[in-house]
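Practice problem: Exopolysaccharide biosynthesis polyprenyl glycosylphosphotransferase
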Amino acid sequence: MIKDNQVHLNRAHVVVDGLIVAGSYVASYFVRFGLLWGDRDHAEHLPMLTYFSVLYFLVPAYLFLYYMVQLYTSRRALRLWDEFMDIVKANIMGILSFLVILYMIHQNNFSRGMIVIFFFINVLLTTVSRGFLRKFLRYIRKKGYNMKHILLVGYSRAAEGYISRILDNPQWGYEIAGVLDDFVPIDTSYHGIKVVGKIEQLSEYLENNNYDEITITLPLDDYDRLEELVAQCEKSGVHTKFIPDYSSLFPSNPYTEDVQGLPVINIRYVPLSNSFNRMAKRAVDIVGSLFAIILFSPVMLIAAIAVKTTSKGPIIYKQERIGLNGVPFKMYKFRTMKVQSEAEEKKGWTTKGDPRVTNVGAFLRKTSIDEMPQFFNILFGQMSIVGPRPERPQFVEKFKEQIPRYMVKHQVRPGLTGWAQINGYRGDTSIRKRIDYDIYYIENWSMSFDIKIMLGTIRYGFINKNAY
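Answer key — structure tokens:
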């Protein structure tokens, strides 16, 4: 629910910012040519329509600049002044780019005065809108909405400092459920936040509660337990942060947040946890899946007829897979096997010469045509064009106990193709190697990386030598 709320909030940010950019630009036009100088003769050198046509490029360009300065990244502890500086920074880059483009196309009649007015109006209105948004969020968080529930692991000076900052800033929307520690007695309280159990009970608390974040605040002499605790948290799929007890040992880097001078280190950086990144990727998925459905509709029609006429049973096979945030969904494929009982289906992966596979099914598997119905899964939001391949529930339960970091793959939508697949890890291949490639993709995602994988899928073809 928290993630859904954040997505809606960032969508609202984008829409409001787009309207403000457009409104500021229109206002600057009328201020420049109607109110300040009334220089309508100059306006006639370039028609109003020419000025307003710039909005087609200006609005998306400014939204991209806001994204670049992280205005759409969730930073609850960010002060309004720091957000204002980010707004100014983005607008300076926007104005300079605007002026450079005008110079390059030798456009001397475009009013530079109007551009300067636009800069000040846009900065003012965007900052005011962010201020109102903060007041709105503060109001709804007092009502108990848009909250993040946190469990602290380890009682230390860092834990006390973090608790103090959270309690001093209720507008951030954090709620600390308690602290786990082995040395401080249960029910020990610091500003009303109690020690509720032992660190060894972490798995139990993760299983029985729905936390948004686990924040590890161990003292320096307990760092040897960090790897074990991180593994437990990641197995559950809960976002994990680490707050060092001695902050001077940890220089600032892209994986840290600053909570009024207290560095908070994210154990794992997932670019797609950023709502704007998710929205951009989702937009590509929608357009790409629609295009693919239209493009491959003749192939899918032929495949459907072949499946129906060569073996008894449904054309489409629906199999339960585990998707984003560990939520099950039905993945679509053209049926390539004879109709089986539920027990037979759970036998395992297909192997070479598997008697369950039909002759048509073997061809569909080899050419990956059997995967094409998953374009509908992508369109419906259950999958992405690029991402880790989804697995069946019984294998997820097995692998999360056997393979470190396995559950990290469920922090993003599963994909039709992925980094592991274009590197040869498809079908009956090493699951550990596949996970290594999946985690690399998750931690290094970018839109250009997705494009590279799509091109790699086309380049290396759809033929899968490991598909039986």
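Discussion: The first helix runs from residue 2 to 36. Students who identified this feature from the tokens alone can consider the problem solved.
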